Amino acid sequence: MSTLSTNLYNCGSGTDNTTFLCLHQEIVFDLLPAWITGADGLPWVGVMIGSILVGLSGVLPLLLIPLTETDDLKQGDKANFLKYLLSFAVGGLLGDVFLHSLPEIWAHDVNRNGGQPSMYTGLLILTGLIVFVITEKIFSVITKFNEQVADGATTSFDDPEKTNNNIKGYKPDTPVESERRKHVAGYLNLVANAIDNFTHGLTLGGAFLVSSRLGWLTTFAILMHEVPHEVGDFAILLKSGFTKCDAALSQLFTAGVGLMGSLASLAFSGASNSMEARASWILPFTAGTFLHIGLVTILPDLLKEEDPKESFKQMAALLLGIFVMACVTNVLE
Questions:
Q1: Using a CB cutoff of 8 Å and minimum separation of 24, what contacts does 20-25 make?
Q2: 201 CB-near residues (< 8 Å, 6+ apart)
Q3: What is the DSSP letter of 279?
Q4: Distance, CA of 271 to CA of 176 (rounded, Å)
Q5: What is the pLDDT of residue 145?
Q6: 53-85 burial, b if ≥16 CB within 10 A, otherwise e?
C-alpha cells in the first residue's frame, strides 16, 4: 500500500479533472488482481469481464426502482414516480446525444474531412430518426389491424344484445385487452440500445487491444455512462408494458450485443482501421434513434401533465438527466 500512497500523493498536484482521473485510476488498479491488470497478452479475458460488468448495469435498475408487479402505473403515486423516471430518461437521452455523441461525431468528421463541413453525418442522424418514425407507424398500423380482426371475431360469437350497433361505444373485452401490451416504443428502445451497446463493445475491445490498463479505464467510463442511461431505459420498458423481469431480461439481451461488439473488435483486430471506418455510421444513426425515442415517443406523453407541481418535478428530473450526463462526459472523457 505504500506504492499506492505515493501515487495518490503525486495525483494531488494536477488540475481537478486530472486529479480525479488519477485518483480513481490508482485506486481501481490497486484493488484489481494482478492477473487481470497485467493480462496484456490475453485481451479477451479483460474484454469478457469488462463486457459482463457493463452488461450487469442493465439489471441494476431492478434493484434501484421501487416498483412491484402489482403497482398501478397509470395513476396515483407510482404513476407519478414512473413519469419522473421517464423525464430523467428524456434528459439522459438528450444529454447523451448533444453532450457526448455529437461532439465525438464532429471530432471524427474533422479528422476524416480535414476540417471541412459535411452533410453525411446530418443525413445519418436524420436517417436514424426517420427509420424509427416509419417503423413505429408500421407497427401501429399492424396493431390496429389485428385489434380490428380480434374485435370482429369476438363480436361474431357474442350475445346479440351486446353486439347491437345501437349500443354506442361498446367494445367487448378480449383476453388480449386484459393483458398489458408491450408497446412498440419498448422494442424500438431495445433496438437503439442494442446498436449503442455494439458501439460500446467495439470501443471496449479496441481499448483492451491497446493495453489492459486502458481497457479497464474504458470499462469504468462506460459503466459511469451507462448506469443513469439504463435507469431511463428501464423506465421506458415499464411504460411500454414490460414487467420488471421482462425488462431485466431484455436489458441482458442488449448487453449480449455489446459483448458481440467487443469480440468482433478482437476478431478483426488486424483490420481495425477498416472496421472503424465501416462502423463510423453507427454512432450518428444511434443519435437519431435516441432523439426519436426521447422527443417523439416519450416527451409528448409528459407534456399532457396538467398539474403544475408535477410538471415542475418532471422538468427538474429532465434537467437532472442532462446534468448527470454532462458530469459523466466532462469528468470521465
A1: 20/331, 21/331, 21/332, 24/220, 25/213, 25/217
A2: 51, 257, 258, 259, 260, 261, 262, 263, 264, 265
A3: T
A4: 50
A5: 73
A6: bbbebbbbbeeebebeeebebeeeebebbbbbb
Distance between CA atoms of residues 199 and 221, nearest Å: 14
Q: How far apart are CA 218 and CA 324, in angstroms?
A: 18
Residues 6+ apart with CB under 8 A from 19: 11, 12, 13
First CA to last CA distance, the chain: 28
The predicted pLDDT at position 285 comes to: 87
Cβ atoms 100, 253 nearer than 8 A: no
> Above pLDDT 70, what percent of the chain?
68
Residues 6+ apart with CB under 8 A from 66: 81
Identify whether the C-beta of residue 225 lies closer than 8 Å to the C-beta of residue 164: no
Q: Look at residues 255, 331, 325 and name the one whose alpha carbon lies nearest to residue 100.
A: 325
- E strand intervals along the chain: none
Contact present, 136 and 189 (Cβ < 8 Å): no
Q: If you write DSSP's letter for every residue of 49-104 in order, what string do you get?
A: HHHHHHHHTTTHHHHHS---TT--SSSSHHHHHHHHHHHHHHHHHHHIIIIIIHHH
C-alpha cell at 27: 485506486
Query: What is the rounded CA–CA span in Å between residue 253 and residue 234?
Result: 13
Residue 174, Cβ density class (10 Å: 0-12 exposed, 13-18 middle, ≥19 buried): middle
Contact 107, 253 (CB under 8 A): no
Grid look-up 482521473 returns 21
Q: pTM surpassing 0.85? A: no
Residue length of the chain: 333
The rounded radius of gyration (Å) of the Cα atoms in the chain is 23
Are the C-beta atoms of residues 196 and 202 closer than 8 Å to each other?
no
Q: Are the CB atoms for 52 and 201 separated by under 8 Å? A: no
Q: What is the pLDDT of residues 118-176, one digit of tens each?
A: 788 889 899 999 998 888 888 778 777 767 776 665 554 454 444 444 444 444 444 44
